[in-house]
């Protein structure tokens, strides 16, 4: 049997934790916003520290959710569109500057592999709604 190196074990643990966070965020968005006729579909989810951004669609609409983690639980802070792709908007929403920078970078990379039409749906969410 092959043994994992310490660095491989750390990578495996980080991957599992990231998957758990993604699943928890997707579940929260569904529980919060699902309607019988329109389920929320979560696409890209990026996490940095105690903050996350999740791309979502619901029927013919889409947007982004900004989340924060407090006392071990994710909470939707607000929903928005293209503004959540900019560090200054995230900082104004209470995200620390270094975390905002990391989220913007991760989101850009995650969305690069998505259909551009879908990304335009996320961008098109009008306004910012606090929860």
Structure description:
44% of the residues lie in helices and 28% in strands. The chain is built from four helices and five strands; from the N terminus they run H-E-E-E-E-H-H-H-E. The protein has helices spanning 6-33, 87-92, 97-111, 116-123; strands at residues 40-48, 51-58, 61-70, 73-80, 129-130. Strands 1-2-3-4-5 form a five-stranded antiparallel sheet. A hairpin with a 2-residue loop joins strand 1 (40-48) and strand 2. It is globular and about 40 Å long. It starts with 5 loop residues before the first helix and ends with a strand. 26% of the residues are buried. Mean pLDDT is 86; it is low at 1-17.
- Tell me the radius of gyration: 15 Å
| Oligomer class | single chain
Strand line-up of the largest beta sheet = 1-2-3-4-5
Give the strand tally: 5
Q: Which structural category do the helix and sheet elements fall into?
A: alpha+beta
| Helix-strand sequence | HEEEEHHHE
């Amino acid at each position: 049997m092959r043994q994992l190196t310490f660095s491989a074990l750390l990578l495996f643990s980080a991957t599992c934790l990231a998957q758990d966070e993604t699943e928890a965020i997707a579940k929260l968005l569904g529980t919060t916003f699902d309607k019988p006729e329109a389920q929320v579909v979560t696409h890209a989810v990026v996490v940095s520290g105690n903050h996350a951004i999740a791309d979502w669609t619901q029927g013919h609409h889409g947007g982004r959710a900004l989340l924060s983690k407090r006392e071990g639980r994710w909470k939707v802070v607000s929903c928005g569109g293209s503004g959540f792709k900019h560090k200054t908007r995230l900082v104004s929403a209470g995200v620390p500057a270094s975390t905002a920078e990391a989220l913007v970078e991760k989101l850009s990379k995650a969305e690069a592999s998505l259909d551009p039409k879908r990304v335009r749906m996320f961008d098109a969410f009008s306004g910012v709604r606090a929860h």
